[in-house]
Amino acid sequence: MKGRDLSMNLEGKVCVITGATSGIGEVGAQELARLGARLVLVARDRARGEATLARLRALAPAAAHRVHYADLTRIAEMKRVAAEIAAAEPRIDLLVNNAGALFTARQMTSDGLEMHFAVNHMAYFVITQALRERLVAAGPARVVSTASGAHYGARLDLDDLQFARGYRAFQAYQRSKLYNVMWTREVARRFAGTGVTANCFHPGFVATRYGDRSGGFLSWGVRVAKLFAIPSEKGARTLVYLAASDEVADVTGGYFYKCRQMTPSAAAQDDTAARRLWDETARLAGIG
Ligand SMILES: NC(=O)c1ccc[n+]([C@@H]2O[C@H](COP(=O)([O-])OP(=O)(O)OC[C@H]3O[C@@H](n4cnc5c(N)ncnc54)[C@H](OP(=O)(O)O)[C@@H]3O)[C@@H](O)[C@H]2O)c1
Q1: Nearest-CA residue for atom 23 of ligand 1
Q2: What pLDDT does residue 8 have?
């Protein structure tokens, strides 16, 4: 990967990552493994999980990379997989929340959550909460989350977090990515003094499998737009930077793009709203 900070070294570090079977997460995981990390993947599909694990093992055979399986649409699965990982890993140096998707129609999960809210936001929340003690045990540790520049266009409605009224697919996606930035700032606040930092980033518009399975006109539009997108190698650079660079060792609550801290939208900086989002998410997750 070009532009690497040569001081970056993750030798002996344990890194949990979601959504590493494709796109930004897959390239990011490979780069973290090259830097010496042991990867613990969370994947939903066994064939894709095993194939990703095999590629990681070929690339960096010294570390005992592992994979755990969970469908991150379901709260019980988020909790189960996080408990499984917590039981296996006494210390976690790095957690990368990255799995996400775009859904054309308003779909509900078996928990009754809107799909963007569940996969793109709730899974980040539940897994991070469940692994909190393991991150603190490793301190200094980092939580890095894939947000998006799409959050700038989101309109926050605290009375309709799951877009029950007037659903528009891309707007629902934008809102979920706004939640990522708000939530990151709130994690930073709540984890202050523990040695655990939390930052999020926009990867750019990246030619991944993003949107391929969303269906409808939107999927077609995203496919065409992706002809002009950057490769995953470029999209993963800020993920790796936030995970490994000494430059950001003490930075927390930040939103980054192209390895630079940026000012997120005004809504993303509304910390009162972020607390309400946190409380409502915790309530829905059944986490005190
Ligand atoms: N591509 C872009 O331009 C762009 C821009 C800004 C932000 N992002 C964000 O980047 C992140 C990664 O997306 P990508 O672009 O790399 O897309 P991608 O190629 O579609 O990868 C998405 C990853 O998330 C996993 N995933 C999706 N739903 C899941 C579920 N229910 N349970 C468990 N895993 C699930 C996928 O697993 P499978 O392999 O099994 O499908 C895959 O590993 C997302 O958070 C996305 O919102 C992307």
Answers
A1: 19
A2: 83
